[in-house]
Specification:
The complex is a heterodimer of chains A (339) and B (241).
Chain A lengths: L4 E14 L2 E14 L3 E5 L6 H7 L8 E6 L2 E2 L5 H8 L2 E5 L10 H11 L4 H14 L15 H13 L5 E5 L7 H18 L2 E6 L2 H7 L2 E6 L2 E7 H6 L4 H7 L4 H4 L7 E6 L8 H9 L4 E10 L2 E9 L4 H13 L3 E5 L5
Chain B lengths: L2 H60 L9 H16 L2 H7 L1 H8 L5 H24 L4 H9 L4 H12 L1 H21 L7 H12 L3 H28 L6
Helix pairs in contact in B: 1-2, 1-5, 1-8, 1-9, 2-5, 4-5, 5-8, 6-7, 8-9, 8-10, 9-10
Classes of the chains: A alpha/beta (339), B mainly alpha (241).
Bound molecules: adenosine-5'-diphosphate and magnesium ion.
The site of magnesium ion has 3 residues of chain A, from α1.
Chain lengths: 339, 241
């Protein structure tokens, strides 16, 4: 039986033609997003994330390939059919993009007016949505009178007004402070659970992915490098691009590690309550150097990761590897120092 | 002194005052007429020029290469016509369009006749003013409305116009005062209004005091209009506070 995918991107290419020649921004992208999941797309600035998410509602027209949303290939729709399809794809932006001359309430009414819904019904629905995002007291406020977090809440309410099946979020917390980011992410997760709306989250911050995503795609230099569940990708990053994003803080350490072999260990919640490294050192009789260590909290499970510099002695190294295998600890040799 | 004598005295006094005030009364009447004519020309021309210029400005914005419906051919043709009209000095346009004015109004003299060249000169000016106001609207807001499925027409009247309202109002104040001063220029060819009086009395008859009064009045109207425009624009801008 086939999976129920709400968004399928097939062989997507996007080339921009500028005065200084053309740039390939998306190269052979294939992604399938399941109905009801929170799907993250992470990549460094300039990787092509915004272009990719803008292709999902055809704000950006793909050079080739297809974008299938809820069974319809958007690239084959007429303009009016596309406008109708867009009503079921909500979008939220980093810069909020609220109408500055409209109150919060009227901003939420806006997509309903566009959909041709009567003013009365629209206002009722808008009030309800402002309540959902915790802003009922700000209905009459203008965007200029709201904080960043409040503006983003209005934008979320607005994006939800037409009961969309998908919510596209492009760096929506990147302009917010950590506390506000937390509350916005919690709201998204809540909406996902309560309304069943599929959410696509674009970000350059790993902590956003960790906090709310089920699955994640890593995009680097116009390519999707890998896709998997957040646990999977986090524990066993297959590509250099993924490791770079995941362990951004360990990068500078790799520069002065010298000639020893490096091993990356990843622990999950079940193993971190035991002194693994201490045991390993004792049992193997070999000293290791901890080059980097970090813990992350993904969906309430603690994940630890550690970068070990192995001893020069190959026999000691073998003992260490055997011990790790026996303890069933995920590890991976770091080969590409210069990455 | 009898009552009859008293009444006679009053009557004589009245005659004296009337005689003294007669020139002032004429002047007042002249000024009032000129003022009303100027107002009439300005208001009618501004309104008519906006009816033509506003849609043209919106078409220029929408069909621009960065607009919501890029259409280089339409944009190029309309842009060219607008530029040509904008580059003809008003005083020359005034005379050049006289055949059109006569065809429409039946005469080339008086305030109604002046409305025609004023509209022809102001419409392209307004088109550019509207275009520049509307282009100030944040690109992101337009994208957001497109992402919700707004049609180009909905983007124009639900996003571009309301979001640009403060800037459009400021533009309208500037445009109105410009049309007012253009209307005064029409006085050279007997266009009516305060400018006409200033030129007829001040230039042709050497009555510089009357000319000064007209200038002061013109300055006062411009000041009031501009201040009112600024005030209305500010009051309408929800980005402040
Ligand atoms: N409209 C455009 N015209 C030309 N180049 C563009 C355009 N939009 C994006 N790009 C280029 O595409 C690349 C990816 O941009 P973007 O998708 O915004 O990346 P990200 O969101 O990951 O930072 C960048 O190099 C950017 O300069
Ligand atoms: Mg971006």
């Amino acid at each position: 039986m086939q999976e129920d995918y709400i968004i399928q991107i097939k062989d997507l290419h996007k080339t921009f033609h500028t005065n200084n020649g053309s740039i390939v921004v998306l190269d052979n992208i294939n992604i399938s997003i399941k109905r009801g999941e929170i799907f993250g797309i992470i990549g460094l600035s300039g990787a092509g994330k915004s272009t990719l998410v803008r292709c999902m509602n055809l704000l950006e027209k793909p050079t080739s390939g297809s974008v299938i949303v809820d069974g319809h290939d958007l690239t084959s729709l007429s303009e009016s059919e596309l406008r109708l399809a867009r009503q079921s794809i909500g979008m939220i932006f980093q810069g909020y993009n609220l109408l500055m001359q409209r109150t919060a309430l009227d901003n939420v009414c806006f997509p309903l007016e566009i959909a041709g819904i009567s003013k009365m019904t629209a206002r009722m629905k808008a009030r309800q949505l402002l309540e959902t995002v915790g802003l009922s007291d700000k209905a009459k406020a203008y965007p200029a009178q709201l904080s960043g977090g409040q503006k983003q809440r209005v934008a979320i309410a607005r994006a939800l007004a037409t009961n969309p099946k998908v919510l596209l979020c492009d760096e929506i917390t990147s302009a917010l402070d950590p506390t506000t980011t937390q509350s916005i992410l919690a709201l998204l997760k809540d909406l996902n659970q309560k309304l069943g709306v599929t959410i696509v989250v674009i970000t350059h911050e790993m902590k956003v992915i960790e906090q709310i995503c089920n699955r994640v795609a890593i995009i680097d230099k116009s390519h999707i490098e890998e896709v998997g569940t957040v646990d999977e990708v986090f524990r066993r990053p297959k590509t250099a691009a993924a490791r770079k994003l995941l362990y951004e803080r360990s990068e500078h350490i790799e520069k002065f590690t010298g000639n020893g072999r490096l091993l990356r260990l990843v622990f999950d919640g079940s193993s971190t309550d035991r002194p693994i490294i201490a045991e390993m050192v004792l049992k193997c009789g070999a000293l290791v150097n901890i080059a980097f260590a970090d813990t992350k909290n993904i969906h309430g499970k603690i994940y630890g990761q550690m970068l070990l510099q192995l001893p020069e002695d190959p026999i000691a190294v073998n003992r260490i590897l055997a011990y790790l295998d026996a303890e069933n600890i995920t590890y991976q040799e770091e080969t590409d120092h210069d990455n | 002194m009898t009552i009859r004598e008293l009444l006679d005295l009053f009557r004589q006094l009245y005659e004296v005052i009337i005689q003294a005030l007669l020139p002032v009364k004429d002047l007042l009447k002249l000024t009032a007429e000129g003022f009303l004519e100027t107002l009439y020309m300005t208001i009618v021309s501004t309104a008519a020029a906006y009816i033509i210029g506003m849609p043209v400005g919106l078409i220029l914005t929408v069909t621009d290469k960065d607009g919501i419906k890029p259409t280089p051919l339409v944009n190029g043709i309309i842009g060219f016509i607008v530029n040509v009209l904008r580059s003809v000095p008003f005083i020359i346009l005034l005379i050049a369009v006289m055949p059109i004015t006569r065809a429409i109004v039946g005469t080339t003299i008086g305030s109604s006749a002046t409305v025609v060249p004023l509209v022809i000169a102001a419409a392209p000016y307004i088109a550019r003013m509207v275009e520049s106001s509307v282009k100030e609207v944040d690109r992101g807001v337009i994208e957001a409305s497109l992402s919700m499925g707004a049609s180009p027409f909905q983007v124009v009247y639900k996003v571009l116009l309301p979001e640009a309202r403060p800037s459009l109002l400021l533009g309208a104040a500037i445009t109105t005062t410009t049309i007012l001063s253009y209307s005064a220029m029409a006085g050279v060819v007997g266009g009516g209004g305060l400018g006409d009086i200033a030129i007829r009395y001040g230039h042709h008859r050497g009555q510089t005091d009357i000319m000064m009064i007209m200038i002061v009045l013109l300055v006062a109207i411009v000041q009031v209009l501009q201040a009112a425009g600024n005030w209305i624009a500010r009051r309408n801008d929800k980005r402040i506070r």
